[in-house]
Amino acid sequence: MLQLKKVVFSIFLFYLIATALFFVYLNITPDYLTCYKSDKCISIKTPVFVDVSSVNNKVLKTTKNNLLFRTSTFYLNNNSNSLICELRIGFIPLKVLKISIIEQKNLIVMGKFVGIKLVTNGILVIGYSYIYSENSKPKIPAKEAGVQIGDQIISANGQKLKDCDQLFKIINSSQGKTVTLLVKRGEYYKEVKIRPILSSEGVYKIGLWVRDGTSGIGTLTFVDKKRGTFGALGHGISDIDTNILLDLKEGQVYKAEVIDIKKNEYQEIGEVIGKIDENAVVGNILINSQFGIYGKLIDKDFLRYGVNYEVARVQDVHVGDAYIITEISNSIQKFKVKVEKILPLYRNSTKALLIKVTDKRLIKITGGIVQGMSGSPIIQDNKLVGAVTHVFLKEPDKGYGVFIENMINMTNKIR
Predict the structure, then answer these.
(1) Res 25 pLDDT > 60
(2) pLDDT-based confidence at residue 384 (cuts at 50, 70, 90)
(3) Mean pLDDT of 20-30
């Protein structure tokens, strides 16, 4: 009886492990791949028990098996723009894989620091503040009325808000009468009625900390010369207090002068300190997304700082030597890095690549990756593969990167 229980337990454990590995495999298998029209074929490697078939039966396919894996090779039709494949075990479908067949793409790779200014759509609520009055206990009228941190205040008493000062003036001029705010929370809107309180400073308040925009220094990653579009940062601009992605109303990228670079220290990330030239607009920001900021280039002369590179496909990226392009000592330079890991589960995120700075010159100057270097292009095998997005607090010579395909897909949304 005991022996039977051991056998049953072993079978059950094997089933759990196999199921877990199977789901991991499904997650790390991409939903799409890219190949060029000049490519004659594309090969897909799977476990030997997984078959890959084309939805289009006219595509020629060959299969090669070894002990553990099966390689399915599809020979492409020059007239096709895509190929749809289905992964299955026997008659059980697993997932659909789309292969886009595109023209080979080149971009102007920049790696230059720029000034960034962004204005939000509405006023972002970032915190609460007690109001102290002579005749009552400390209160937060806005919180009591239902306003939450992360809400966007669109209008006050029917007036669309342009900035925080306008909101403050409407509240103070109310003289304690009810103020009606139109608040956006996620995708929903609601009206909130608040009665301001006269504070001990003699000003009417509702007890909120708010913000209407942000500015800073970042790195311009690339420019698509044909379309006149650009991509920068590799990650979105979020509010520093709430970590909420800012809802873009308008924004600009400017020329910037680097004054100093604060080097990384123990558990303190360094930063690029720069001066934004608001009289020198480089481009208009049209999109603020999780993969960075994107827009239209205005200053065509800015292209002189860049170099033309071929764009790599996701499947071209591999563990090994690479380099990043960034602006140090007022010149754009290449610095050696190593792609230590490719993280398939995070393919469609800003943490798809794990990189380590190996160039002693950069480590000596910055200590690794510092704030402001987000968006620095990553080059491997003389192709643009991605951009730097994050730095590790405890290991500032290491950081994450995003695949360049995710950034290019965002520029394709610009008309």
Answers:
(1) no
(2) very high
(3) 56
Q: For residues 264-291, give the mean pLDDT.
A: 92
Of 72, 155, 289, 374, the catalytic one is: 374
The catalytically annotated residue of 235, 289, 376, 397 is: 235
Kindly report the pTM of this predicted structure.
Answer: 0.83
Active site residue 374: yes
Among residues 151, 212, 224, 359, which one is catalytic?
Answer: 359
Tens of pLDDT, residue by residue over 341-379, are 998 767 788 999 999 999 999 999 999 999 999 999 999
> What's the confidence (pLDDT) of residue 151?
92
3-state secondary structure the chain: CHHHHHHHHHHHHHHHHHHHHHHHHHHHCCCEEEEECCCCEEEEEEECCCEEEECCCCCEEEEEECCCEEEEEEECCCCCCEEEEEEEECCEEEEEEEEEEECCCEEEEEEEEEEEEEEEEEEEEEEECCEEECCEEEECHHHHHCCCCCCEEEEECCEECCCHHHHHHHHHHCCCCCEEEEEEECCEEEEEEECCEECCCCCEECCEEEEEEEEEEEEEEEEECCCCEEEECCCCCECCCCCCECCEEEEEEEEEEEEEEECCECCECCEEEEEEEEEEEEEEEEEEECCEEEEEECCHHHHHHCEEEEECCHHHCCCEEEEEEEEECCEEEEEEEEEEEECHHHCCCCCCEEEEECCHHHHHHHCCCCECCCCCEEEECCEEEEEEEEECCCCCCEEEEEEHHHHHHHHCCCC
